[in-house]
Amino acid sequence: DTEVTQTPKHLVMGMTNKKSLKCEQHMGHRAMYWYKQKAKKPPELMFVYSYEKLSINESVPSRFSPECPNSSLLNLHLHALQPEDSALYLCASSHLLQETQYFGPGTRLLVL
Amino acid sequence: SQQGEEDPQALSIQEGENATMNCSYKTSINNLQWYRQNSGRGLVHLILIRSNEREKHSGRLRVTLDTSKKSSSLLITASRAADTASYFCATGLIQGAQKLVFGQGTRLTINP
C-alpha cells in the first residue's frame, strides 16, 4: 500500500470556525509532512514530524496546530484562519527525511 | 533566495516531441528529486538522483545531474497528452534542516 489518504477533500470554513485536516499512511514511514500550496506555486513546507516528534516548524502562525497521534496519523488543527489561508493543503510521508516523499491528494481549503 | 530555480517556467510542445526541463540550485545537496503534479492534485514522485550519480533513467524519463554546475535536467521523450502537468525539482540539502526544498516548477503542456 503506497497510498497517503487525506480527509476531507474540500473544506469551507468561516474565520471563527475550528476544523481539522487528517492524513493517514500505512507504509511504515516515520517522517510526515504538511505543505501549503497556492495556485501556480510550489508546495511550501509547514511542519515536519520525525518519529512522531515535531522536528521542523517553518514559522507557521499558531492558528495552525499540527498533531501526530501515532506513526500512521497526522492532523492539522485549524482555528481562526484568515482568507489568505485558503489553499491546497498537502500531506506527505517518507521512510527517511530527504528521501522520496509520497503525497496525498490534498485538502482544498476555502476560508470565508 | 530560492534554492531551486526551474527553467523554463512554462513549456508547450506537440505530442511526440521531447520535453526538457532544467533545475539549478545554490548549495550542496545529498540528492535531487523530480515530482509531477496534475492540476490541483497531489505530487507524484518521478525519480531521485543522488549527488554521486550523473544520470538515471526511468521509462521515458532521463535525469542528469551536474554537481559542478549545480544543475539538473529532466528529459521526457515521446511526450503524450497525459504528460501535461507541472514538474518540480526538489533538493535534499547537505547542510541545514533535514527537508526537501522545492523549485518553482515548470508547467508543461502537450498539444495533441
Commentary on this structure:
The complex is a heterodimer of chains A (112) and B (112). By secondary structure, chain A is mostly beta strands. Chain A is built from no helices and eleven strands. In chain A, strand 9 (87-94) and strand 10 form a beta hairpin. The mean pLDDT of chain A is 95. By secondary structure, chain B is mainly β. Helix content of chain B is 0%, strand content 58%. Chain B has no helices and eleven strands. Chain B has strands at residues 5-7, 10-14, 19-24, 29-37, 43-50, 55-58, 61-66, 71-76, 85-93, 100-102, 106-111. In chain B, the strands form two sheets. In chain B, strands 2, 4, 5, 9, 10 and 11 form a six-stranded mixed β-sheet that branches. A five-stranded antiparallel β-sheet of chain B has the order 1-3-8-7-6, with no helix packed on it. The radius of gyration of chain B is 13 Å and the shape is globular. The termini of chain B are far apart. The chains are: A mainly beta (112), B mainly beta (112).
| Pattern of helices and strands of chain B | EEEEEEEEEEE
Structural class category of chain B: mainly beta
Percent in strands of chain B: over 45%
Helix % of chain B is under 10%
Structural class label of chain A: mainly beta
Largest interface: A-B, 25 and 24 residues
Q: What's the count of strands of chain B?
A: 11
Shape field of chain B: globular
Helix content of chain A: under 10%
SSE series of chain A:
EEEEEEEEEEE
Major sheet details of chain A: 7 strands, mixed
Tell me, what's the shape of chain A? Answer: globular
Low-confidence stretches of chain B: none
- Mean pLDDT of chain A, as a whole number? 95
- Which band does the percent of strand residues of chain A land in? over 45%
- List segments of chain A where confidence is low: pLDDT < 50 over at least 5 consecutive residues: none
Terminal-residue CA separation of chain B: 37 Å
